[in-house]
Amino acid sequence: MSLALNLQEPVTRIAEQEFHLHTLLLVITGIIFLGVLLVMLYAIVRHRKVAGREAKQFHENTTVEILWTVIPFLILIGMALPATRTVLAQKSAAGADMTIKVTGYQWKWRYDYMDENLGFMSHLATPRDDPAALARPDYLLEVDEPLVVPVGRKVRLLLTANDVIHSWYVPALGVKQDAIPGFLRDTWFRVDKPGIYRGQCTELCGKDHGYMPIVVDARSETDYRKWLDERKKLAMAAADDPAKVWKLPDLVVRGEKVYTQNCVACHQASGKGIPGTFPALAGSPIATKDKPGHINIVLNGSKRNAAMQAWGKQLSDTDIAAVITYERNAWGNNTGEMVQPAEIHKARAGTS
Amino acid sequence: MAMTDVQQAPAHHHKPSGWSRWLMATNHKDIGSLYLWFSFIMFLSGGVMALCIRAELFRPGLQFFAPELFNQFTTLHGLVMVFGAIMPAFTGLANWMLPLMIGAPDMAFARMNNWSFWLLPPAAALLMLSFLVPGGAAAAGWTLYAPLSTQMGIGMDMTIFAIHIMGVSSVMGSINIIVTILNLRAPGMDLMKMPMFAWASLITAFLIIAVMPVLAGVVTMVLTDRHFGTHFFNAAGGGDPILYQHIFWFFGHPEVYIMALPAFGIISQVIPTFSRKPLFGYTSMVYATSSIGVLSFIVWAHHMFVTGLPATVQLFFMYATMLIAVPTGVKVFNWIATMWEGAMTFETPMLFAIGFILLFTIGGLSGVTLSVAALDIQLHGTYYVVAHFHYVLVAGALFSLFSAMYYWFPKMTGRMYNERLGKFHFWWSMVWFNVTFFPMHFLGLAGMPRRIPDYALQFTEFNSIASVGAFCFGLGQLIFLYNILTSLKNGKPAPALPWEGADTLEWKIPTPAPYHSFVEAPQVEADHNGSIVSMHGDKHH
Ligand SMILES: [Cu+2]
Ligand SMILES: [Cu+2]
């Protein structure tokens, strides 16, 4: 394995400019450092105290002092000019060919293709707590559903977050932008080269900050179109009939999936939570007795603790019904009770 | 002049004994020692947390700590080192040395001085005990960004309270430093003559008074968001999470210089002494230090280049930040010009000072790299930033503190430290510091985010190297502790002037410094950087 010593290989014009800026800065700062080092080494070797050597007592020299104020200033201007050009380029998101809304969640991303009526979540795909996972080449940098984009098109990202601040960073694209709850920020990229580009969340966002990777899959225009059609069909097929009446075992199976994708990070696979931070659901009064309370907190979140968010905003009626049913029947909460999607639909009408 | 000349007053009157000497301490030397020991203990505690972090990151996968505990370590490591180790260490040094360097009998407000110190242990206890409460310690990073910091348990409240207390302590300490320097200088010790260490402490004290209340304010806003229904940082209630960052970094960037300027001051005393030459460009040093202080207030948003600031704002903060490189460069050039044509010797304080200049220059240059907003898009939030600020804070602040401790140890204790161990401590620290932190530049360039407990496989090698380096570096600090402890007991008696080139006021009084020095202000004739041409009329007991 070769050791990476530099920025990742750029695949956008912007990333390339950043790459060159870094090279320029590395050369300039490198020369300055070498200069400082050499002069100092020379002094250390030649101007040490040896018998008969007296220190010269000079302590001022206006010319020299003016020079070493003005020259660095000029060097800085030399750096600032190309940097300014790149800043302006990074900031001009106008004229985009398509827009994707990116939402950061604790701890996953959601991508909504604004012009296509398509949206999905993107979760870490590396299994946690499995030592064998370390053999996977893209350990911690793989997701279940990457963000697919066409090459050669200007893609504008609109970023926001659901809970805390996250930051969407893909080094090869030269893009990093904070996703801020309650606000929209934008950035853009245009990928020149088809390929898979990986990045991570770079703003500390809680416990699983290290586990919310980003994968961008850049494809040719035709491949992108093909993917888009298939993905939309898939979404249609997966859409649930909200009026369907489910049987308990099916609902529990579905609910376990929803739980694993959305709730396990805090409430844990054991349902025992993390004492002091995330409450246990196993044996909790809400998950064993108070059904309306249970529906309410999952649908609308907690008023007391923002970490427990309003899942109604991102999960379908069926998913919420399933996960509640699962929680009421897992880890010894054997209530045998079921919640049907229709009940969630009604609860939404009552609270929104 | 010497101690023996003074016989009146019973001994206990000079020098209280037992625990009350420390608990009720009003003597600047005692309080200085308390500060220094406290900060060293905090340095070791923060260091242990750093080693926990590096142990976890030695290889990929989770081996020792769950992610939530890992985040507590990164958070508390930062808070403990900044507020518990570095800041109190500089205050302690200022307490010990300033009165001696400017000819004052003590600090201006001796009782407030006692309070400034004794507020710190309870604050430190709050921080440390927060590991034990439900939910554990704060885990939002030392920056405590909202809204993440509104999610945590009671550990966050304890941290906020600890910050309040430490803020009060450092503001009181700063008032003391300012009043002492402005009012208690010996006749003849003009402002434009006094040592750079005094100048640096003075400017730092002003920065602290200006920004610590801002920090206290912003964490209080987090506190009220958490418990009293306000929405400063909650968009759903009309607040703005980014407001937190603006306020925090308005404190945070000057804070960087609060930890750097005193270091500049120390280096400006040590380099001339061991070069046997006056400091080059004293006046320009004073102006450079002041302008760094002023500029530090208008660069804060360079920590926010990826929050989505408009282009014009990014450009303003980029230019302003680059500008700071000019006075900082002037300082480095002045130090080198001081060494030039000198007659240098390389005792431990000088070694640490030279190490400081080299490594601080690297940190400064990576800082210029980070200031370029367009490039910061790649580097922000990665290990490059971690590398940068450890070059500035460990090789900067910490090395300068070691330099100062070795330099003034004979004056403080009347004994010499072990020179061979001191030199070994320097070389050991120098090597392992670089092994630890230099690879982090590469990790950051390759895109490794900071504050993650586990990482992708391509980051393995450099993380392993950094971890090995960190453990060696950490262990090496015990050499320092051993040297100090043994030298306190058995060190060779220090001569009155252990350093041939030292000519500031503290070297003109008996060694060790008498418990009450300058009970009458001396009349001095001083030259630049506090070097004393002549002095008479001083009294000590
Ligand atoms: Cu995140
Ligand atoms: Cu800053």
Low-confidence stretches of chain B: 1-12
Number of domains of chain A: 3
Name given to the CATH homologous superfamily of the largest domain in chain A: Cupredoxins -  blue copper proteins
Q: Write down the overall mean pLDDT of chain A.
A: 91
Supply the CATH superfamily name of chain B.
Cytochrome c oxidase-like, subunit I domain
Description:
The complex is a heterodimer of chains A (352) and B (541). Chain A has helices at 13-46, 62-91, 221-238, 248-262, 264-267, 285-288, 291-300, 317-327, 341-351, and strands spanning 98-105, 108-113, 118-122, 147-150, 155-161, 166-170, 175-179, 185-189, 195-201, 213-219. Chain A is of the alpha+beta class. Chain A has three domains: 13-44 and 62-91, no CATH class; 98-238, Immunoglobulin-like (Sandwich); 248-351, Cytochrome Bc1 Complex, Chain D, domain 2. A five-stranded mixed beta sheet of chain A has the order 3-2-1-5-8. In chain A, strands 4-10-9-6-7 form a five-stranded mixed beta sheet. The two termini of chain A are 55 Å apart. The model of chain B is unreliable at 1-12 (pLDDT under 50). Chain B has one domain (29-536): Cytochrome C Oxidase, Chain A (Up-down Bundle). Chain B contains 17 helices and two strands. In chain B, helix 8 runs parallel beside helix 11 (282-295) and helix 13 (348-371) runs antiparallel to helix 15. At the A-B interface, helix 1, helix 2, strand 7, strand 8 and strand 9 of A face helix 4, helix 11, helix 12, helix 13 and helix 14 of B.
